[in-house]
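Co-fold these.
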Amino acid sequence: MQSVARSQSTVGPDTAAPKDATLIYRQSRWTRLTHWLWAISLFFMLLSGLQIFNARPQLYIGKESGFAYNNTIFAIGAENTANGPRGYTEIFGKRFDTTGVLGWSGAAGRETSRAFPSWATIPSYYDLGTARVVHFFFAWILTTTLVVWLVASLINGHLRRDLVPRIDDLRRLPRDIVDHARLKFHHTREYNKLQKMAYGGVMFVLLPLMIITGLAMSPSMNAALPFLNDLLGGRQTARTIHFIVMLLLVAFFIIHMLMIFAAGPINELRSIITGWYRTDPPAHGGKTPQRSA
Amino acid sequence: MPKFVISRRKFLTSASLGVSGIMLSGCDAFDSQLGVGDGLRSFLEGANGLTWRAQRLLAGDSLAPEFTEADIRQPQRPNGVTAPDDDVYKGLLANNFADWRLEVSGLVEKPLTLTREQLMNMPSRTQITRHDCVEGWSCIAKWTGTPLSLVLDQAVVKPQARYVMFRCLDTIDRSLSGDIKYYGSIDLIDARHPQTILAYGLNGKPLPVENGAPLRVRVERQIGYKMPKYLRKIELVDSFAAIGGGRGGYWEDNGYDWYGGI
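Predicted complex below.
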């Protein structure tokens, strides 16, 4: 890998493209542009979203929030104990001590009662109004970007070529899982099977679900599209799903970062910034002797 | 030429370090640009106008979902001020609001002064709706009141009026220039919406003090802070630039969006 990179270093990647078969133009400008717009929007939406959650750090199932009855399935809070205030997180009635991160956090001696800690929210101090301004601004950016990406990917073939699932994907899936488990990565033009599933899942399941559950929380949208909450099981269930999808997107982000570091961060970052990606030399290395040094 | 690779590598490394640096340094990085009136903040707030127009287009005059008696499973949760400490209010409460009047003024042809009996003698509307608090919780209850559109028609709104301003009896905050009584505004589309009522009844009983007695607004396609309680006066205006902080309401002046349909 190192030697391949060095041999390439005598000429710039762009000019070398026609001569160097392993360097390919993999990501169109539309894919790259929308990728970074999502990265920025999701960053701000996550942190402003956690601030919004802090205003009511409970999740419920149903049309409304139970105050005279219990339909709470998740809660973050603080309580006074013999050892001073402690933060807790309660999932389906089971309570965990999460002092320092969830429920009770802050600089030593200046801890406060807050669900998500100040380093995880925008603004860092409690301000629901501002978090809503930030959240809804980036909601427009995120949704517009998704539409632009969908149209561009339909036109330039990215969708059909790289993301549409095929029967063959299923057949090769077990092998792909084994390869990932061994951290053995193939650098090819196509996405590998797990990659395809992950990207497809984010684009066609998680992001649309995020937008739909977001809209289902808006009272005006409930008037415009009353069936949304009927389908989702009520506004408070929609809010709970919105939160769960957030957790799945965070999990995707963590795995995405780990995979980039495992597969070669320079090459992966280059392809999503410039579009150019270095693929593996052909098998046995025999066909391109000048690269096999 | 090898330099090219190094500089690119350096660029990529520093770019990724920069991004993770922002993420690790905590989010107070943005605090200084997000205060009311700051340039970045004002730019981001532009999205609220876009949401307002888009939702008006999509929702038209559609009605907010209504529920059944079986969906009323608990008392309406009160929020904000729940027991006004104002002398005027306490005086009115002492004789069960017999001396209370609703004033309708501003850009109207016929300013009105209405008693609670006069309002209750007008045609009423009862609806079981879900109250959505800006904090994130919801509560379903049955509201009874006079459609605001009937009151506006009686006062005859002048053509230049654009907003309905609600003035309240309860002190929500104190400033150097005195007590701040709750105030808020909606546009005439919401004001004339069939579910927008001046509510005096809750779950089949007179409206309790904690929920806004003697009269509060219900604007069913908006978030809770857009529905003032303890009403004193309805004022038709063409602009709210000169009222409070100029953003259209108490919470709006404290950084909340004016359009609360989301």
